[in-house]
Amino acid sequence: MTKLSDKTIWITGASSGIGEQLTYQLASKGNRLILSARREAELERVKSNCPESAQKNIHVLPLDLSDLDSLDNAAAKALKIHGNIDVLVNNGGISQRSLVSETSFEVDQRLINVNFLSAVKLTKLVLPSMIQKNGGHILVTSSLTGKFGTPFRSSYAASKHALHGFFEALNAEVWDKNIYTTIFCGGYIKTDISINAVTGDGSAQNKMDANQAKGKTAASAAAIMIKAVERNKREVYFGGKEVMGVYLKRLFPGLLAKMLRKMKINEQK
Question: Is 256 domain-assigned?
Fold first, then answer.
C-alpha cells in the first residue's frame, strides 16, 4: 500500500465534481497539486477553498482537453513545476445525451478527443518521467458505461471502453517499473456531468438527469478513488444498484441487453 501524501499529483477536470473533491481530500493529505481545467477562475476558487497552509503547494494550470495540440506545452509546464509527476489523474471529460442517428460526427470526434485521446496523450507525455524515476501511478475516471454500452451514450461509451483497453495494456507493460494504473468506473454520481452533457448537435443538455440527482456524492467517489490508488487496485466500481450491470454483462449478457432496451434517457448515467 502506498499512502497518497507528500506526492506531486496532476488532476484534470479539477474545477468541479469529482476533480474538485479529489483536490480537497488530497490537499488535506499534504500533497503538491497541479489543477487543470478550462475555467481558470473556477480552478482558483477550488484552490482558495483549500486550507491556507495547503495553498502554497497548489498550482493552477488551465487546460482545454479538446485542444490536443496544446497538451505538449501543458505537460512540459506541469513537469517543471515540481520536477516530476507522481500521480496523473485523467479525470476531465464530457458526457452525451443523444441517439446515434441524431448525433453529428463532429460530436463523436469531440467525445473521443476529450475523453480518450487527451488521456492517452497526457499519459504518453508524463510516462517517460515516471519510467526514469522508476515509479508512478495513473488514475483514470471511466464509467460503468465503459463496461457496457447504453442507449443515448454511443460515443461516450466508446470513449470509455477505449480507456479500458489502453490502460489495461499499459498496466501490463509497466508493472515491472513500479508504475500502476487504476480505472475508476462510476455509476450515478451527483455532479454537473449530465447538465454539461452534449446533445446531437453539440449543445449542452442543460439539465440534470433524475437518477444522477439522487446519486452518490462526488466526495464519496473521491474517497474511494484515493483508497483504490493507495491499494494499487486495477479497477474499481462505484455506485448503487447500477453496478450490477457489470456482473450481468459478464454472466447474463442477453438479460442485460433486454433491460437496456427498455431504459429511458433520464434513467442512465
Answer: yes
